[in-house]
Write a structure and sequence with these properties.
The chain has a single domain, classed as Growth Hormone, Chain: A, CATH 1.20.1250. The protein has 19 helices and no strands. Helix 14 runs antiparallel to helix 19.
Length: about 425
């Protein structure tokens, strides 16, 4: 298989991984009500279940990042898929609420495995199209949520929520085998133009000196600040929005399905649109990707506030505005991922991405529980509104600051890679 075609085969395998993993991870939202009914728990306790899984994933992000920068990334990703399948099965067999909370928390182990996946993508696709490719790959996330929702609604009644978990857990084992046997390990930094110019460049591996040097990277630190607040809305929306439509807006199952399917499909389009716009403006300005991200988050905040303020009987306007909101919500995702790789050396990219993801989740791990506590005292609608709008506004500020810092850090990395190539070339000549 030719390399140009093989990389799209790898992309397809990764797309299936993200699609099915997100379906498994997010279907707990549509299954919230039957799980709460079976264990006899309230919103605050159910929120704790999700928060526990998020916290476990957050803690393990730096561990996964370090391992990816030290060892074969493809094999580690296969291991993550196997863990996903195994822990989902354990959740399905839990018969008490404490056991379910512990087993569901264990599903967070594999949730922090994504830095290696995106690092591999960066070594298969050149920098000029990375946001576009990341955006196409991230289409699998909302589609995965949609698949999880359909599984919950169509099969939940027939096989129960445990049966749905058995299905998605089994698929994880299948994906693990596909990655283990089908994905080759590319050379780190192999798509960087500065390194491609040299006939042979030594592959660098993780270095604590280089990793600690990231603390002086202003763009990365600002992107991490954005990430800390940026995951609050996603955690709240994915976990509670299904129940919000059911209990507060009075939607029946058919209305929930139509509304969510439309919003998720539009959201899926938002990832490649945001990524393509980021690449387009990045070619014209090194600030382009981050400026596109900033526009996306502020428009998402404004539109969500307007949408949630509509009367409960305005179902058609609500659906239309929810779709428009969903289009802009993911604009930042593919561009922020590409920016992390734009400013970090190849040998510490998984670590840098993992630290960014760690900071995303370490704060937002409490978001589902916080929303549950607000809902008990006020309403789910108010919880979603307050948390999403406030944190997206903070993200807007961080992204603007990062956009102004980015050119300096991007050019510094390119000079560093060029120096490596020149040193290798001089060594070969000598």
């Amino acid at each position: 298989m030719k390399p140009s075609r093989y990389r799209w085969f790898v992309f397809a395998v990764f797309f299936v991984f993200v699609l099915l993993h997100q379906a498994d991870k997010l279907l707990i939202g549509p299954l919230t009500t039957p799980i709460m009914n079976e264990f006899g728990i309230d919103e605050a306790q159910m929120g704790l279940v999700s928060s526990a899984a998020v916290a476990v994933g957050a803690i393990l992000y730096p561990v996964w990042g370090y391992l990816y920068d030290r060892f074969a990334r493809a094999k580690l990703l296969a291991l993550a898929a196997f863990i996903w399948g195994s822990t989902t099965w354990l959740s399905a067999v839990a018969r008490s609420f404490p056991a379910f909370m512990i087993t569901r928390a264990s599903t967070g182990i594999d949730d922090s495995s994504y830095p290696g996946l995106y690092n591999l993508v960066a070594d298969y696709f050149e920098r000029g199209i990375r946001s576009k490719v990341n955006g196409l790959l991230q289409v699998a996330m909302p589609l995965g949520y949609l698949i999880g929702m359909l599984l919950a609604m169509l099969l939940g009644g027939a096989v129960g929520w445990r049966g749905v978990f058995y299905i998605t857990g089994s698929l994880g084992i299948v994906v693990a085998a596909a990655i283990f046997f089908g994905v080759r390990e590319p050379k780190r930094g192999s798509t960087e133009p500065e390194l491609q110019a040299a006939a042979q460049v030594t592959e660098h591996r993780f270095s604590w000196k280089v990793a600690l040097g990231l603390l002086r990277n202003r763009t990365l630190l600002l992107v991490i600040g954005n990430g800390f607040f940026g995951q609050f809305p996603w955690q709240v929306v994915t976990f509670w929005f299904f129940r919000y439509l059911e209990t507060e807006r009075g939607y029946n199952s058919g209305e929930v399905l139509i509304t969510m399917v439309l919003a998720v499909l539009v959201m899926a389009a938002g990832y490649p649109v945001g990524g393509a716009l980021g690449d387009y403006f990045f070619k014209r300005s090194l600030r382009g990707r981050l400026l596109v991200s900033a526009v996306g988050v502020i428009l998402g905040a404004v539109l969500l506030a307007v949408t949630l303020g509509l009367p409960f009987d305005a179902k058609v306007p609500f659906a239309l505005l929810m779709c428009l909101t969903a289009l802009f919500m993911p604009f930042a995702a593919p561009n922020v991922t590409s920016t992390v790789f734009d400013v970090t050396p190849p040998e510490v990219r998984s670590t840098a991405h993992a630290v960014e993801n760690f900071c995303e989740l370490i704060g937002s791990s409490l978001a589902p529980m916080l929303a549950g506590l607000i809902a008990v005292r006020a309403s789910l609608g108010q919880a979603i509104l307050y948390i999403c709008v406030s944190t997206w506004f903070v993200c807007f500020i961080f992204l603007l600051l990062a956009a102004f810092a980015a050119p300096r850090d991007i050019m510094a990395l390119r000079r560093q890679l060029q120096q490596r190539a020149e040193l290798e070339g001089a060594g070969e000549a000598g």
